[in-house]
Each structure stands twice: as C-alpha cells, then as structure tokens.
Amino acid sequence: MKKNLILHAALMMMTLSSFAQTISNPHIQKSDDFITKIAKIETNSQYTIVYFKHTAVSDSSWIQVNKEIYIQTDVSNEHFNYVKSENIAIVPAKQYLKKTGDDLLFKVYFKKIPATAKSIDIIERAGLMHNGITYFNYYDVSLVNAVKVTDMVLVPPPPEGSFETGRLLDNMGPMMNSITKSTMDAQLQYYKQPGKIAEIAQVTKAYYNELRKAGFSEEQALKITASNGLLPKTTGNN
Asked: Residue 162 pLDDT > 80, yes or no?
C-alpha cells in the first residue's frame, strides 16, 4: 500500500509539472506600451498568468486594466479571456504611482491557453488611439524565445581641462551658439509640419522596440531613447 501511495504521488507531481510552462523576459515583436514590461508568462493547470512590471515616467501617473483584455494564440483565433488580476486597478478605477521611476508589479490571469502555442498576442484594446492613452497591446510574444539582457557600461567623460584645445573651444562658444540657434529654428519649422510630430513618435517607439529586441533591458532602452531628444542641446558661456 505504501509503495502504491508513493507511486501515485510521483505520478501526480509529474502530471502537475507537465501542465507548467514558464518563460521569463519573453521576446516581443511589437508593443503599444513601451513602459510596461512583460516579466514572465506562466501557464499552469488552471490559468495562463502574465506578470507585468510598470515603471512610472512622471509623478502622480496612473495605471489601470480593462477586463476586456484577452490572449490570442498562434494556434487559432480563439480568445482566452481575462479571469482576474492582482495589484492593479480595474477600469474605471485608477492606481496612482507617486514618483517618476516607481515600479508596480502586477499579474493578470487568463483562461489557460493550449500547450501547443508558441506565441501569443495580448490585446487590451485593438486599434490606434489618439488621446495619449496607451493600452496593454503586445504582438507576437514568444513562448519559447527569451530576450537576453545585455549589460551596458557607461564610460565617464574625461576630466575637465584635460585637452589643450579646451580654451580654443571656449573662445568659439558664441559662434557655436549662433550656429546652434539657427539649426534649432530650422528644425522647429520642420517639426511644425502637419503630422510630423506623430511620425517622429512612431519612429521613437520603433527605435525603442528595436533596442529591446537587441537585448537591452527596459531601463537601458528607455535611457538610450530619452537621451536622443528631438532638438539639439545647447551650451553657452554666461
């Protein structure tokens, strides 16, 4: 009898483990929300659970999720709907983050997807939005390929005054400021063209997505994207 119980327990453990499918930091082909990262996707015997990490990009920012969010797999057109969620407000409620850089970890449970699925789409609200609100839309999220996080080392600038040319460059300051101002004026006129800002926003989002695909972490990709502003930075001598 004892032997049979041990065998039964072992079979139960094997059965439960066969239901589990987990991937951390999955590769994402395209995302409509570049500040909310999918940290992990887990499928157990009951649910498919998506673990999210959201980082606030401004003080007093807010986040929420619609119950209409669903998963669609590469197996069929079937929708695997929302079941429940943890640590995030449900529309119409809002969850606020106090400071820029604050992180919020939350989970969304969906109906269990097939074990044969190799990729999924997560759709909160399909279609383009023009009100500045982004939705949890992620396309071609791999269940087999993870993103390798690449370490980035920032090299400090050389000590001030280490170059002989420093004084010469200081003397050229007024002329460089004039050139920079002319360049900025020309760029401002360029950006005032109809639809140009929206076009640049799309390019910026595509640039961020390519950095993530290349292996940069969310924080690294945000820093790189933010450092490349639309207008040049100017310096001057007072």
From this structure: no
Beta-carbon count within 10 A of 27 CB = 19
Domain residue spans in the chain?
21-142, 171-228
What is the architecture of the domain spanning 21-142? Sandwich (2.60)
Confidence at residue 9, expressed as pLDDT on a 0 to 100 scale: 52
**Ranges assigned E (strand) in the chain:** 21-24, 26-31, 36-43, 47-55, 61-63, 70-73, 79-86, 95-97, 103-111, 119-123, 138-146
pTM score of the predicted model: 0.59
> Measured between alpha carbons, how far is 191 from 88 in angstroms, rounded to an integer?
37
Cα distance between residue 83 and residue 110, in whole Å? 5
- Collect all residues with Cβ–Cβ distance below 8 Å to 169 and sequence separation of at least 6: none
